[in-house]
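sorry for the late reply, my laptop died twice this morning and i had to redo everyting from scratch. anyway the thing you sent over, i finally got around to it. pasting the sequence first so we're on the same page, its 946 residues, then the predicted structure underneath. double check i copied it right bc i was rushing
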Amino acid sequence: MLKSCTHLIFVVLLCFMVNTQQTIAATFTDKVFTVAINKTSYPYHFENAEGEAAGLTVDLWRLWAEKQKVEVDFKVMKWPQTLSSLADGSVDIHGGLSKTQQRIKHYDFTSAFFHQKNYIFVHRDYHVRRMEELRPFAIGIVKDSSHVDIIKNQYPELILKYYDSRFALFDAALSGEIVAFTNLDKISNNYPQYREVSQLFPAYKRLLFNKGDYTSAVKKGNTALLAFIEQGMAKISRTERSDIEKKWLGIDKKSDTLILMFSPEFPPFMTVSTSGLAQGLFIDMWRIWSEYSGQSIEFIPQSFDNASEMLASGGADIHIGFPDLSFTQGALTLYPALSAAMQVYQADIKCYVSKDRINNTANTKGMKLGIYKNIPNIENLRLLFPDNELVFYTNFKTMVQHAESGKIDGLLGAKDIMESRLSMANVQHEFMALPDSFYTANLYAVTANNNEKLAEIIKNGFALIPDEALINLERRWLSQDSKGYFKHSKQKAQLTEEEKNWIANHREIRIGVNKNWMPVEFINEDGNVGGINADINALVEQRTGINFTYVAFDNWQQMLEALMQQNIDILASATETQARKEHILFTDSYWDMPWVVIHSKQRGKRQRLEDFYGSELAIVKGYHLVDKIRAEQPNISLRLVDTHEEGLLAVQTGAVEGFIENIASASELIRRESLVTLTMSIIEDLNIDKNSYAIRKDWPLLQSIINKGLATISATERKEIYEHWFEINLETGLDKNVVLRVSLQVGAIIVIIIVVIVFWNRRLYVEVETRKALEEKMKHMAMHDELTGLPNRLLLKDRINHGINYHRRQDRLMAVLFIDLDGFKTVNDTHGHDVGDELLILVAERLSGCIRSSDTVVRFGGDEFVLLLTELHNKNEAAFVAEKVLKLVQQPFELSSGEENIGCSIGIAMFPSDGESETELLKIADTLMYRVKAAGKNHYVFNADN
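ok and here's the structure:
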């Protein structure tokens, strides 16, 4: 009886619910619902390029209308209008918004679509870790957005600056009007300058200030419509909702974390540590990607065999380094569920052969070669090695053992992986790599098929990472002789198909060279071209694929006229002028040189052209300065000369007062001729000469190609070239050719005398070399810290001063990071000075691993260190190094006393904004460091006055 009653009640309730739903549905039959859509709430709802409504919630509402058998009409408008239109009944439904306490008073809300995080994005130059530290700044915010109510309620002390739309907010951020703004989890990538905003306000600098519900709303009191909406939303399955979310977000909102799969058999690219943690070049690469993209990630190890199934089933989102899928169609068939989102790396495939069994290192014919079984495109490999037996292995350990025991002759694999595996087996000295790479294997970020949005997110994230950050990872994980994919890629000019075709059709490009213009360019005794320009030309050829053919000229004027007449196609070290631009194309400048005047030392120091008023100066024909000086300095007479030697001779003989030349050529002329009676003065009136390539007018594509080639040449490479050619090499000892010639002429007695002289000279040479070595050792001791071996403050002063001069000329930034260890005194006092010294040595090693070869780590004294970072383009590069230092120093140190943890505080001074001298920069950096300590330690700060 009880069961029957219960069953009857259940049936009655079910009928009531069905009838209620039918009644609700009948109420809105044939109804067209208007839905308010904001123009800029990408990717949730926005106006696309065609002026139509688009986005995640737009697709959701279309699916809802289909389930409910009704129609929807989207009304695209600005954000404040979406709210006012809902309040006055102009629209039926708001497309999507955050639920706040203030809004509940005016609207009724549906169940949450998903949970949403809200952030404040902070400019990369400002080191802010807590919301309270934003008090001095105005925070950009879209008026009438949910962020206004949240910030006012939770952080009433913050100053808000209001904008009409998110795009207006981004515009203000780019212009420098604000240094922080509220936003959702990511910056809208439909904003035209999305990349610029993302680079200035990177995801790793954002602060989470609220977690809330993202939902929809109707006018207050419209409960029938609210129930009708809920009814339709309940009909949308979890899979349907997930597909829409992945289309627009690249990820299911049910979980905000991307699962990244990696194959742990491939150190140093990806493996696991002894404690089971993911580590390797690719692991760190994706961690940086996470910082810049703002996307939370989690690593899981998995073999290549299971990758396809894991991605297809949703067990993982991305495989971080899957081998080439593009060699053959067979590879794609083997992994039909996978889609290559983007290439993330490239590895050289080399052959390693036992030293005991190799006779001809260039020939592998007939060898039995081992290879890892999971490498794709096996058929392609068989075509590459038709004369070899390929033996496939399920693990590297067995493969290396068989190579060591002679069961196979060699091993095929990626260079860095194979060298790591051979080293792990302690047999790296028993095998040698054949000199050539057989092919390169591309490695990809791989997703499940059809997840185009996730592929876009992957590409956008990598586009935001500075090249230097990725190159530094290669320096950390790969051996010194590794080519490095990121370094190599940076060095290759990215040419268009049109530019590549142009190069293919112009195999020979005639470039003029001055026979005797040392060290800029010249023809040496062997008939080869040398000098600064020759080295720059070689890099441009290497990076672009063009081929220069040199045509020699006696002087600059001949070379310039030949270009005008198109007897040559290009020349280097030309200065752009308005007159020349009518007939010639110019590339970007690739090096700058001051103009000087060579004159007699008796004339004293001269720094202005007015010091030569009433005098005559020599200058090479064709130089752009000829017209400039004649127009601006009528009190100076010019004598035009054909060659540099002619100009120098005119000064020596007193025919002219001085000779105008660039500083590089002038230095070489004085050095080469040993002219102790002459000197040179840098002339302040003359602009620094910007050297470019001059190109024939009808070849604009060559201009574009060379500009791209020049862009790949790093500041360090340029510096090395200039320093090489400005070096003065002094030779000692007797010339053996002179000895031989004299001995043949004067007979045996003189030969004996010469032999004695040579012997005495050899002893003198050995003594000089010994003294030089001792001097070098003493100089090193004077300039370096005895404990850590790092440069000391004396060498730091010298390098800062040299850096100031160089960076001032090149218009680049330099950073001084003053580092003080937090917690060192406790370790030193507790365990003694020996343990303290251990710790300082380990800190020095970690700091040295944070920088490039062109930078400097200094032990300033006690537990204070200084980093000098050169050739910077912006502050963000210094910030990246500072954050790396903080992370490394905070990791535990294994000392003889046990494991110890410390931290550090860092003050950063920038040249030239914080000072024009070594004293000023160190003082600012030191002061900022103490400001960090006072604020709680373990972070870094720039000078806010910049």
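The longest strand covers residues 338-354.
thats about all i looked at so far, will dig more tmrw
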